[in-house]
Design a protein that fits this description.
Layout: H1 3-26, E1 41-60, E2 66-81, E3 85-87, E4 91-101, E5 106-115, E6 125-134, E7 137-147, E8 153-166, E9 172-189
Antiparallel strand pairs: 1-2, 1-9, 2-3, 2-4, 4-5, 5-6, 6-7, 7-8, 8-9
Length: 191
């Protein structure tokens, strides 16, 4: 094969590869083999700021574990979506949780609702969650069961910034304030 034939062949192969790649991107009917593995979870929607209060009944005691109910009410901001970008305004995150807890250790389950900023046009995301505490950081995880991003995995971490009541009193701590230490996120499995 002479040098001109090699260059023509290389140009044709390059064009064919580029065309196949482009038609795969444009979705023009090219079949693609599945690898049989999930691509993993990607954060689709998030809010970088979450702050609010938690009402606790009965109050959290320093040593004695109690079955408690906690109602978390917070404001969210700095929200964005992977496709539409930044979302103006603020929304709310609320949760009702119950379980056994002390002032320093909690293991709660419950339900949540995320009301997205009005500018998003999204329906509320409702779901179930569990919350645990370790070294003063509350880790919350769950799943969206209805509304916007049904099936997405929910995650949030926050720390307590203040409280009402005394952990060693009979009444215990009946309210807390919180601020997030990691963004509120909804992640979708892209596999």
């Amino acid at each position: 094969m002479n040098i001109i034939s090699r260059r023509v062949r290389a140009a044709l192969v390059s064009t064919a590869v580029a065309g196949a790649g482009l038609s795969g991107v444009l979705g023009s009917g090219v079949a693609h083999a599945s690898t049989g593995r999930a691509d993993g979870f990607i954060v689709y929607t998030s809010c970088t700021a979450v702050s609010g209060t938690i009402r606790i009944n009965p109050g959290l005691h320093a040593v004695k574990a109690r079955t408690v109910q906690e109602v978390l009410s917070s404001t969210t901001s700095g929200c964005s979506n992977i496709f539409s970008g930044s979302i103006a305004g603020s929304g709310t995150f609320t949760a009702t949780m119950s379980g056994t807890a002390t002032y320093k250790a909690q293991n709660l389950t419950g339900t949540f609702t995320i009301n997205w900023p009005a500018a998003s046009g999204y329906n509320p995301s409702n779901g179930t969650l569990s919350e645990t505490e370790s070294n003063g950081v509350e880790t919350v995880s769950g799943t969206v069961t209805s509304g916007f991003e049904t099936g997405a995995k929910f995650a949030l971490q926050y720390s307590i910034t203040g409280h009402t009541g005394k952990p060693k009193s009979t009444t215990g701590v009946t309210a807390e304030t919180l601020v997030n230490t990691q963004a509120l996120t909804l992640s979708v499995n892209t596999g």
